[in-house]
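Consider the tokenized backbone below.
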């Protein structure tokens, strides 16, 4: 079955074609325009999606070497995310599905990030743990089987990606902050500053990153006059504090669930220190790292999950809504 997937939940406009579990095309347009504002401007994101979607859908079809009439289903993200941005993708998807006379399925962005791990290893066995670390979420999931997910715990406040983004802004680096801090941390001494690792000793699966960002702010303020501060050391220490928290809760999740297979998902899953630390702390046979291009927002994960849903007999009625603030029920 050939499925076209659309992702517009934040500042990435993305379209992909999946055929029988294989990604035939994966077109992602990152909206660089937000970088000059130090973060995503919702209204600009929606307008950019509108501008880009038509051409990107054609590009995805062309590069997949299929005809538009070969498409048998449309999958589209309907939450969580920015309301206006979600609406542009959902409206476009509904119009396309109606025009082609094919079925449509709405996709939860978080589920798609998790299921992106199957793009890396299609023989991945249930159950497994998934650390979902993106710009909006930091959650630890127990994935029992398809469509049976248990939220073990999450951040009380900022997400790990948000900590990178806000930290970068304090350090005068560009948006998105994760890759910038990672670059700046190269060669820096990560033991130089002992930033707080909130909740690291609690025996609950929970995270908190807002105090870390404040601590960075105070640290940088103390150098305002003197300028005597090594940015590489600061970035390396800050990055290490975030990664330490993530690793410690992964260890706790393994202890509490007895499940040893570990996967990661979301934009922060691109982070090299996080990947290296996971590799150092856990057996490589138990670790699944999604390909870098499937970590940050993309539509391959949407078209792939969409096809799986269609195969399970799922489809959406055309009047489905968007869910900007979707939050999973805690089991
Ligand atoms: O999954 P994603 O593309 O969008 C959301 O669903 O939020 O994640 C974006 C987040 C941003 O906060 C960005 O700073 C972070 O992922 N990120 C990284 C890296 N690349 C992207 N964080 C740390 N290290 C990276 N290399
Ligand atoms: Zn995402």
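A designed sequence for it:
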């Amino acid at each position: 079955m050939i499925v076209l997937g659309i992702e517009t939940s934040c500042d990435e406009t993305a379209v992909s074609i999946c055929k029988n579990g294989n990604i035939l095309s994966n077109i992602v347009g990152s909206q660089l325009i937000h970088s000059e504002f130090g973060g995503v401007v919702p209204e600009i994101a929606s307008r950019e999606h509108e501008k880009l979607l038509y051409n990107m859908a054609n590009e995805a079809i062309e590069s997949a070497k299929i005809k538009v009439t070969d498409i048998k289903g449309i999958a589209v993200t309907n939450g969580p995310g920015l309301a206006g941005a979600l609406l542009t993708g959902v409206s476009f998807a509904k119009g396309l599905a109606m025009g082609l006379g094919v079925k449509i399925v709405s996709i939860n962005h978080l589920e798609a990030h998790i299921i992106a791990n199957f793009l890396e290893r299609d023989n991945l066995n249930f159950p497994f743990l998934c650390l979902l670390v993106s710009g909006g979420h930091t959650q630890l999931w127990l994935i029992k089987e398809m469509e049976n997910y248990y939220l073990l715990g999450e951040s009380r406040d900022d997400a790990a990606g948000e900590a990178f983004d806000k930290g970068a802004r304090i350090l005068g680096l560009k948006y998105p902050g994760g890759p910038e801090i990672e670059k700046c941390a190269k060669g820096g001494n990560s033991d130089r500053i002992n930033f707080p690792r909130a909740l690291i000793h609690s025996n609950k699966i929970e995270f908190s990153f807002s105090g870390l960002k404040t601590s960075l702010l105070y640290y940088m303020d103390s150098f305002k006059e003197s300028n005597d501060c090594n940015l590489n050391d600061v970035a390396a220490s800050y990055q290490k504090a975030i990664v330490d928290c993530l690793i410690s809760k992964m260890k706790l999740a393994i202890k509490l669930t007895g499940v040893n297979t570990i996967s990661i998902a979301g934009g922060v899953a691109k982070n090299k220190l996080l990947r290296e630390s996971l590799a150092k702390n856990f057996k490589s046979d138990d670790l699944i790292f999604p390909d870098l291009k499937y970590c940050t927002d993309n539509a391959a994960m949407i078209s792939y999950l969409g096809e799986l849903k269609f195969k399970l007999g799922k489809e959406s009625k055309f009047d489905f809504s968007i869910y900007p603030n979707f939050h999973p029920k805690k089991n």
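The pocket of zinc ion (ligand 2) is lined by residues 109, 113, 134, 266, 297 (CB under 6 Å).
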